[in-house]
Design brief:
- The protein has one domain.
- 39% of the residues lie in helices and 24% in strands.
- The protein is built from ten helices and eleven strands.
- Strands 5-8-3-2-9 form a five-stranded antiparallel beta sheet, with helices on both faces. A four-stranded mixed beta sheet has the order 1-4-10-11.
- Helix 2 packs antiparallel against helix 3 and helix 3 runs parallel beside helix 9.
- The longest helix is centred in the first third of the chain and has 14 residues.
- The radius of gyration is 21 Å and the shape is elongated.
- Pfam families: DUF2971.
- InterPro entries: DUF2971.
- This is DUF2971 domain-containing protein.
Length: 252
């Protein structure tokens, strides 16, 4: 199986030069609706347990700060919409990776605290039930991951495939607070957990997982030359990495 990611040319160069990619903390994503089921859950908790708004906000922040993810596209067919969204200056690229290689690379960042979740395809569903999956009794890894497995149908063109990492001790800690229905003894520790999580988790990827790089079909000729020269200088030919400009808009 192969997976694909559209990105700016600058991010592509940084990816190649550093040979690193990142899982991003969910609350740092651009889409404010990501993980909205988690927000619904904590609104539900507030009704049931009558925690003060500040403490509910702290608990919700901890839940979001426990979750990191990276999104890819599973569709081998190029998408006009994806080029326009992720290559707005018309000089971006689409990289093609072997999924199993990325999964192996991400697994290497696992620790006693960080668990790597099995990757999954996102479901685009109009009818996402909040209470059927996320309840007070299952604020667990699986319950929180469920919130990342579903998106609104408006995003179905992305055909997302996600890798997720989570901080298990913090999730267990969060669950214990809600079960106790009391945060009075944990405020300081809760803030420490929330504040200690950086915006990204980086991982080093294997170059042999990179199979192809396509340049935006709208890129001007001078940028195509820059792109091709860069790929040649990085020995893509010797590494059997295909590269070239997309022919999405070329008529046969």
């Amino acid at each position: 199986m192969f997976i694909y990611k559209y990105m700016s040319f600058e991010n592509f160069v940084a990816m190649i030069e550093k040979q690193k990619m990142y899982l991003t903390r969910v609350d740092c994503w651009d889409d404010v609706f990501e993980g909205y089921l988690i927000t619904h859950l904590f609104n539900h908790i507030n009704i049931q347990l009558s925690f003060c708004p500040e403490k509910i906000k702290m608990l919700k922040n901890l839940a979001f700060h426990c979750l990191y993810a990276q999104s890819w596209c599973s569709d081998e067919n190029e998408s006009d919409a994806m080029w326009r969204i992720y290559s707005q200056n018309k000089n971006g690229v689409r990289v093609k990776f072997e999924c199993a290689k990325i999964q192996e690379d991400i697994k290497r960042i696992a620790t006693k605290s960080i668990e790597i979740v099995n990757p999954f395809a996102v479901t685009y569903d109009k009818q996402i039930s909040v209470n059927s999956q996320l309840t007070l009794s299952n604020i667990t890894k699986d319950g929180l991951i469920y919130a990342l497995q579903n998106k609104r149908p408006a995003f179905c063109h992305e055909k997302e495939y996600r890798f997720v990492a989570c901080y298990l001790p913090e999730i267990n800690f969060l669950q214990s607070i809600i079960k106790r229905k009391d945060t009075s003894d944990y405020d300081r520790l809760l803030r420490a957990f929330t504040d200690s999580k950086g915006p990204t988790l980086e991982y080093k990827y294997s170059m042999d997982g990179l199979k192809e790089v396509l340049l935006d079909p709208r890129a001007p000729g001078h940028h195509k030359e820059t792109f091709e020269e860069y790929c040649k200088n990085r020995d893509f030919n010797a590494q059997n990495i295909e590269f070239g400009q997309s022919k999405l808009y070329t008529l046969n």
